[in-house]
Amino acid sequence: MLRRWSIPIATVVVAVGSLLGLAAGNASAATAHHPTTTAERPGGAAVRGFKPGGVMLRPSGAARAMERNGRFQAESTNWSGYAVTGSNGTFKSVSASWTQPTATCTSSSGRRSSDEYAAFWVGLDGYSSDSVEQTGTDSDCDGRTPDYYGWYEMYPADPVYYTNTVEPGDSISASVTFSGTDTYTLVLKDTTRGWTQTQTINESGFDRSSAEVITEAPCCTASGGILPLSDFGTINYTASTDNGSSMGTQSPTSIVMIDNSGLDKDSTSSMSSSGAFSNTWIRSS
User: Fold this and answer.
1) Distance from CA of residue 144 to its chain's centroid?
2) pLDDT tens digits, 161-207
3) b/e map of 23-44 (b: 16 or more CB within 10 Å)?
4) 228 neighbors 221 (Cβ within 8 angstroms)
5) d(CA 175, CA 152)
6) Where is 119: in which H helix or E strand?
7) Positive or negative CA dihedral for 47, 210, 131, 174?
8) pTM: predicted TM-score of the whole model, two decimal places
């Protein structure tokens, strides 16, 4: 009897061992670390030359500004929001918070199906220099499908995207901080989803001559032009600061985004003393 049962018992032992090994393997796979960054834009197909952030572009390459509603406002073909400026080395930090806007990817007639983009970020440089150290989020339209994600960029280097979930209504905060050892710390936080991304990058040679909180129509079309601005409704920024002080107490430069015909693509509200303001979408291009 013992000999007769020896083979089945051994088989059971092997089977149990295999199951335990499989379970352990599954547990290991379940807890394996997955990368939280990607070089590919999340969502739809890759866009050639796409960068969610970049330097401020001015109409016809000229620095244009005008008086609007009793206040000075600069014009740009890709930026709206606010910037404070100074000499090289002036700015060491910038930060702001916002609620992630909803991208409306169909018109009232339901016919809109083009790809459109809107980026929201904080950064150092870019107003009058050829670099930007920045981090933020996007509310894009891949045809009729909304697409939301976070990213950082040491422009003109390529952007890096986060794979963390971002949804409309999420509470977002972002900051860029420079230390005296050529170190930049870029932090993007989604309080609603409970994640924070921190990047520490060592680079030298940037001007640090401006700090800004920006809504942007990103680059680039096949011909190198600015991409259509997605309908983000209204974005409300709060606690816009640079060097630890509210931008609202520093007479920042207001920026409005215009198209090639000089028509406003969105509007920029006044900024409160606490650093709160809003941008409201008007047209895509």
Assistant:
1) 20
2) 999 999 999 999 999 999 988 999 999 999 999 999 999 999 999 99
3) eeeeeeeeeeeeeeeeeebbbe
4) no
5) 11
6) strand 119-124
7) negative
8) 0.85
Q: Residue 156 is which amino acid?
A: P
Q: Do residues 117 and 228 touch, judged by C-beta distance below 8 A? A: yes
Q: How far apart are CA 144 and CA 132, in angstroms?
A: 31
For the stretch 215-243, pLDDT in tens is 999 998 877 889 999 999 999 999 999 99
pLDDT at residue 27 tops 70 = no
Collapsed DSSP state (helix, strand, coil) of residue 259? coil
Residue the block writes with tokens 């509603």: 69
Residues 6 or more apart whose Cβ sits within 8 Å of residue 100: 120, 137, 139, 148, 166, 167, 168, 169, 170, 171, 172
Cβ–Cβ < 8 Å for 136, 246: no
pLDDT in tens, 88-124: 999 999 999 999 999 999 865 555 558 999 999 999 9
DSSP 224-243: S-BPPBPB--EEEEEEEEET
H/E stretch holding 30 reads helix 2-31
